[in-house]
Every structure is written in structure tokens, then in C-alpha cells.
Amino acid sequence: MANHILITNARLFDGVADKAVADSWVLIKDDRIASMGCGNAEAPQGARVVDIAGQTLLPGLIDTHVHTLMMGDEGLRLFIAAGVTAARDCGGRLDGVKAVQKSLASGEKLGPRLYVCGPLLQGAVQALPEPFASVMLESVESVDAVPAKVKPLLEKEVDCIKLYFTLPTETGQRIISYVGGNVPVTGHLGWMRASDAVKAGINGLEHASISPFQDICRLEHRWGPNPSMMSREWGEQMRLGWQEADLNAQSARDLIANMAQRQVALGTLLSVDWMTWSGFDNIRTDPDRRYIPPAVLARHRAMAEALGGGEDWDLRLPGFGGGHAGDPRRALDKQIDFCRLLHGAGGLIVGGTDAGGVSMPPPGFSLLRELELLAVAMGHTAALRAVTSQAARYLRKQADVGSIAPGRFADLLVVNGDPLSDVRDLRKLTSVYRGGVEYRPADILAGIPANPNYRPEPAKEG
After folding, report:
1. In a designed cystine with 34, which of 27, 71, 239, 310 is the match (CB 3.0 to 4.6 A)?
2. SS3 258
3. Which runs of E-coded beta strand occur in 149-289?
4. Structural domain of residue 4, as residue ranges?
5. Is residue 183 domain-resident?
6. Closest by CA position to 386, among listed 428, 423, 360
């Protein structure tokens, strides 16, 4: 017998429209949405009726850039606690990410509906500390090696192919051509310029700060051969390049226009620099810090020790963190301006976060922070679309996720607030439905081990 849930008295945002619709209802049958409407609804016999008393009902959120092999099971659960019901693993050893995908689909583990890219396809080997290299990377030594490297990924039904930083332009072009549109191709680009990738037919660019850099920054700031993303010097060079970038320059305008025309998605990952936006002192006492998963803490402890240790090691990455030369906030503001210009040109913007690859903000909550920055660039409702229907369209999964419509998975959020007016209201999340099964965020968070480095701000006297 089918299991029915009727959610009534909802203020419904379907992920597509500009406004929410009051007095709405949604009928769930098993794991899918059966029907929806306004006003009174007749519940099927035996259905569970849930009156949400005018709270906002919206689609589950989608993070288009995570690394599940680096976050542990606690990190997977955090996605659901924050309302992220679908995600794309944007770089990991294929057997590992497929195993995580299977365990999430079967219900063995609690976490988002997972789509996978497989390994990051790089060119010349870049020096990265373990476990990054063996967990994430696959070298494509030449243009001729492309079929042997890419064909097995397509045969194993990856949902996307990802190009990585050290991939030469000719090899990247060959991969895009070889994939032939069968799945989306995205890129965390460095040696290959974004403009060349867009012309070759790439479908997405990762990191607003990195992939467009060679087209945006002045010539003297561009990366030369063998840049190391794990060095502080690399991070300083990138920030200086953005601080001095002219977004009205012809190369920047051409990139924005071509991305918009071809609907090449920008996976923003602005929250990687949340520390810059919020300020280091605020990050130290940020309640989200409590939920950095144990697996992420262990990796960051090892990296911190290799770099000389220090207080607040759980918050730092090589090339990121506090103590920068120049004005890193100005660089971040320029990246937000780039997103604003792309959105204004009709471009496709989606929210990704690098969850698992960075420590703070932690998985799930990082997308809530991403939304805050996206709202600065494009407004609150457009930001919500970027992590629901727009993200689903980019992933080519719009028939299953990203909007509330008959036939879609019943991945739904109940929020005691109005996130269309202020995305921070997503913090008032009361219930999460994943495939028609209800979860309470507070119950999930109660089972997450606390980060011992988290020290809430002492209560003020008086």
C-alpha cells in the first residue's frame, strides 16, 4: 500500500517562481510528489496530514560542489540538518564516491542525494599533500591519453566530468570534445583559460575566484607554469589580481557575455572566503564552527602541524585564512561584482561550496553561507533559485530535484520564516523531507560530535 503524506496550509515557493503562494498543499506518495494545489485538499485514506500553519515550504537545497570522501559520515548528515538534500561530489576517486552514492541511495547512510564526477582530471602532477592527491586526482598525460582516461568514467555512468587546474588547454579541449555532451563538463581551471573552455563547449566553471582569473586579472598577475595552490604566495597573487582587476575591460566583458549566451554555469564557491567576509574574530566564535566534522578536523590538524601548527588550526588552509597582505575583502567584493554582472547578463549561477575540502563553514552550513553571499550579488529569491531549480537544470536532474512539482522527489524544507525576503531565515528550518521521509535538524545536530576547538563567546556580565 502506498504511503501518503499531505502537507497543508503552506506558503509554497516552488523553486522557480518569483513569489511564494499562500494556502498551498502538497501530496506526497511514497518518495515522490503526487499532486499539489491551493485551498482545501482531500487526503487519501490512511494519509498522514501535516498542517504547517503558514510556514514556508520550498525545495531541498542543492550544493553543486562537495567532496564526500573527505568529510566522513558526520559531514554527510550535516547536509540534511542544514536542508541540503542533493549534492554533486565534484572530485574523488570513482570507486570511493560510487560507494558513498550507493550507501546514501540505499539509506545505509543519512545524507543528500548524491551525483558524482569521479576524479579531477589534471595534467602535470601538482604537489598536493595527502590525502588530496590519491583521493582526488587522475593525471591525463597527453591529448592521446584522453579516451583511455575518460571512457571508463562514462561507462561507469558518472554524472559529470571535471577538469582540473594543471590541465593544458589542448587536453581540456579534447576531453570536452570526447565527452560530446553526454554529461556536463565542468572545470576548476588554471592553465586553461575560461574563455578557451567556454568556446570549446564546457558546461560549468568552478570557483568564482579561480577559474575566471586568467581572463579577469591584469597580465602581470597571471599564473605562470607550475603554480602551487597550496602556497601562501599563490593565494596572495590571486587576491592581488582580483583587487586590481577591471571588470569593464574587454576580456572580462567578453567572458561574461559568452558565459551568459552559452549558459555556462558558474559554481561560485564564495563561502570558501567566508572568513574574509565575516572577519576572523567572528569566525572563531561562529556557532557553525562547532560542527566541523571529525574527519575534516583530523586532516586539518595534520596540515597545520606540517605548516608549523598554531592556535585555531582548524580554521586555516594554505593560501587562505587571516593575515593577508593587501585587501582581501576588496578582492572578494570584486568576485561578488563578477557574479552580479553575470547574473545581470542572464548568466547561469549555481551555489557550490567545496564542503569537505575546506573546514569552515562545515558541510551543509557552508551552502547557507554561500546563499548569504549570493543574495548580496543577485538578491534573495534569485539566490534561492541558484541552489534549487537552477542547480538542478545545470546538473540535468531537473526531472527529479530542484523544484516542487508532481513527479519530483519529495525533497522539501519547512521553514518558520521567509527566506525569499532574507535567506538567513533558512536557519529557522523545522523539518526536512528527503524522499518523503521527515527529519528534524535539531535531532541530527544533537548526534554530531562537537569540535573541541569551538569556544563560544563568553556571556557578557550585567
Report:
1. 27
2. helix
3. 161-163, 185-187, 204-206, 265-267
4. 1-59+402-442
5. yes
6. 423
pLDDT tens-place string over residues 184-197? 999 999 989 999 99
Residue in the block written with cell 544533537 = 446
Q: For position 201, what pLDDT does the model report?
A: 98
Instruction: Confirm if 141 and 96 have CB atoms less than 8 A apart.
Output: no
Q: Positive or negative, the Cα torsion across 147, 152, 158, 161? A: negative
Residues 371 and 408 in one domain: no
3-class secondary structure, 74: helix
Residue of 399, 150, 163 whose CA lies nearest to 267? 163
Same-domain pairing of 181 and 312: yes
The whole-angstrom separation of Cα 195 and Cα 192 is 9
CATH number of the structural domain spanning residue 415: 2.30.40.10
Q: What is the distance of C-alpha 128 from the center of its chain?
A: 22
Same domain for 199 and 246: yes
List, for residues 58-67, the tens digit of each pLDDT value: 999 999 999 9
Please report which confidence band the pLDDT of residue 320 belongs to, taking 50, 70 and 90 as the band edges.
very low
Question: Which residue has cell 559520515?
Answer: 73
CA distance 375 to 358: 22
- Tell me whether residue 186 is in a domain: yes
393 and 406 together in one domain = no
Encode 404-441: b = buried (16+ Cβ within 10 Å), e = exposed. bbeebbbbbbbbebbbbeebebbbebebbbbbbbbbeb
